[in-house]
Amino acid sequence: MTFEFQQVEYDAHYQQFAVPFLIEGNAENNCYFVNQAKENHVYAVNDALQGLLHDALSLLARVKFTKDADHFFRYGVMRRLRMVMSAFRSFQSVIMPDRTVPLAQDQSDNVCRDLNAIYINILGVLDNYAWVTVHQAGRDSTKCAKPMSIGLFKPAIADDPGLKPIIDSLASFSAWEQDVKTRRNPAAHRMPLYVPPAAFTPEDIGEFERYELLMSDAVRKGELDKLSDLRESSRRIGRLVPLFLHDPGEKVMEIYPTLPQDIGQMVKIGRLVQDFLRSHGPAIDAV
Questions:
Q1: pLDDT tops 60 at residue 222
Q2: Cβ contacts of residue 232 below 8 Å, gap of 6+?
Q3: SS3 breakdown of the chain: % helix, strand, coil, rounded to 5?
């Protein structure tokens, strides 16, 4: 598992695929190899997420869960993992690290939908894991705690002796959990996450206005056959900068490696929780 944990960390790919090839003062060369590192990081997180889902299916087949633990695992953890995986695949089918072409409107709508789905479900998965562990290995008083007090990083679980081993193993993720909330919580309660379709220079704006005039002139002259090509050319003005944000006045974040890195941390936590659950229930064939 140590190798898998390393593979979902961007730094491992940066050290392997970028650092040996970086040349001081050669921005174009360096951008290429940094993008190679980011792409390999994406592929590794895809594999790790798929592996986590397969391990979850294996767990259901081998461990006898309590009724409530089974409920939260099947209808919470499993559903959310598939939603994260589907949204992440959809997102990367439109935007990979080396994309510079501006987003069309439908592409912009789709990546924003996927981005928000991913971040809302990342913490949703962790909450579902918390409920599964409580109902599988927690004491009765923890099971009866107020719903808002149940979480992998909340005192109600940390104070439960039966859950202490898993909570101790997750301690190193506490800072990340607080950080990812800065991306998830506004999306759930205030401003959704957004990917700007393009960035424009003053020259780009002038070129865009020129195409607007050409399209108006084509309509005035009845040359409607020219409109499609003119529109397509105007859509390619500008450059996609792979960033995302909540509000124009707030922090701007890089899509890569932030997005796959966050999914990777969720996968690591999932693996640790599922290993804990594997040892806290009788095997189905032994029941």
A1: yes
A2: none
A3: 75, 5, 25
What is the number of H-type helices and E-type strands within the chain?
13, 2
Q: Are 267 and 49 in contact (CB under 8 A)?
A: yes
Using the Cα atoms of residue 11, residue 12, residue 13 and residue 14 in order, give the sign of their dihedral. Answer: positive
Domain range for residue 111? 2-192+256-286
The answer to whether 256 and 40 are in contact (CB under 8 A) is no
Gap between the Cα atoms of 107 and 195, Å rounded: 10
Write out pLDDT tens, residues 134-192.
999 989 888 888 888 899 999 888 888 999 999 999 999 999 999 999 888 887 778 89
275: amino acid identity, one letter: D
Per the listing, tokens 């009765």 go with 140
Residue 210 lies in a domain: no
Locus of tokens 């229930």: 281
Is the per-residue pLDDT at 257 higher than 80? yes
The torsion defined by the Cα of 9, 11, 13 and 17, in degrees rounded to 10, comes to 170
> Are the CB atoms for 43 and 97 separated by under 8 Å?
no
Would residue 209 count as lying in a domain?
no
Type of residue numbered 77 = V
Tens of pLDDT, residues 235-256: 777 789 899 998 887 889 999 9
> From the CB of residue 205, how many other CB atoms can be counted at a distance below 10 Å?
12
| Number of structural domains in the chain | 1
Look at residue 222 and tell me if it is in a domain.
no
Where are the strands (E) in 14-91, listed by range?
none
pTM given for the model: 0.89
> Is residue 99 in some structural domain?
yes
